[in-house]
Design a protein that fits this description.
Distance between the termini: 52 Å
Shape: elongated
CATH architecture: Beta Barrel
Structural class: mainly beta
Order of helices and strands: HEEEEEEHEEEEE
Radius of gyration: 22 Å
Largest sheet: 8 strands, antiparallel, barrel
Number of domains: 1
CATH topology: Lipocalin
CATH class: Mainly Beta
Length: 202
C-alpha cells in the first residue's frame, strides 16, 4: 500500500510540474491599442540604403491566457492606404497598382495558425493576405509581460519580426540601375511593437 501511495504521489508531482503556471486562468480578449503600437517595414533602396515606412491605421485582437502565456488567436487587419514613408510622392506610388493597389485591395490581413516556444521567445506561423494573395509567414517574437495602467486597464506588450518577399504578393515593379542592382529590393523586413488592452467583462 505504501509503495502504491508513493507511486501515485510521484505521478502527481510529475503531472503538476508539466502543467503551466496559472493554468487555472482563462482565455481573454485583448484589443490592439493603435496609439501605443507600431507596424513598420524596411526595404533596400538603390542598393546603398534602406527606406523605412509604417502603417497608420490598423486593428487587431489577441485571445490569450496571459498568465500561462498561452495563445489561441492573433489576428490583424491593416489598411494599406495608411502607408506612410514620410514622402508624399513615394507614398502615392506605394498606393498605386505598382505596389499595394489600395483601390482594389484596401486592406491586408494576418491570422496566426500555430506557435511554439523558442528559447526566451516565440515563433508564430500565420497567413498573410495581401493583394488577394495568401502566403504563410513566420514571425519571431517576444511577450513583454503584463502591466496595469493608471486608468484601470490591463495591458500586454509584444515585439515581433519577420521577412517577406514583395514579389510573392504581385509587387513586381522595379527599375534597373546603371551601376547594377535595382531601385527597390525584393525582401521586406517587418517589425511590430504592439500593445494590447484586455477587454473588460460586460
Amino acid at each position: 500500500m505504501y509503495r502504491r501511495m508513493m507511486t501515485a504521489g510521484v505521478l502527481c508531482a510529475v503531472l503538476l510540474a508539466g502543467w503551466p503556471a496559472g493554468a487555472g486562468a482563462e482565455m481573454a480578449r485583448w484589443d490592439l491599442d493603435l496609439e501605443h503600437s507600431i507596424i513598420e517595414f524596411r526595404v533596400a533602396h538603390m542598393v546603398v540604403s534602406k527606406t523605412a515606412g509604417r502603417f497608420m491605421d490598423y486593428s487587431g485582437v489577441v485571445e490569450m491566457d496571459a498568465e500561462a502565456q498561452q495563445f489561441k488567436t492573433i489576428e490583424a487587419t491593416i489598411k494599406t492606404g495608411s502607408v506612410n514613408t514620410n514622402h508624399e510622392k513615394r507614398d502615392a506610388h506605394l498606393r498605386s497598382a505598382d505596389f499595394f493597389d489600395v483601390e482594389k485591395f484596401p486592406a491586408m490581413t494576418y491570422k496566426m495558425k500555430s506557435y511554439k516556444k523558442v528559447g526566451e521567445g516565440y515563433q508564430a506561423v500565420g497567413d498573410l493576405t495581401l493583394r488577394g494573395v495568401t502566403k504563410e509567414i513566420t514571425l519571431a517574437g517576444t511577450f513583454n509581460g503584463v502591466s496595469k495602467d493608471p486608468w484601470g486597464n490591463t495591458r500586454a506588450g509584444f515585439t515581433g519580426e519577420g521577412k517577406v518577399n514583395r514579389k510573392d504578393f504581385g509587387m513586381v515593379w522595379n527599375k534597373a540601375l546603371d551601376s547594377g542592382g535595382f531601385v527597390v529590393g525584393e525582401e521586406v523586413s517587418i517589425r511590430l511593437d504592439t500593445e494590447c488592452i484586455k477587454a473588460k467583462k460586460p
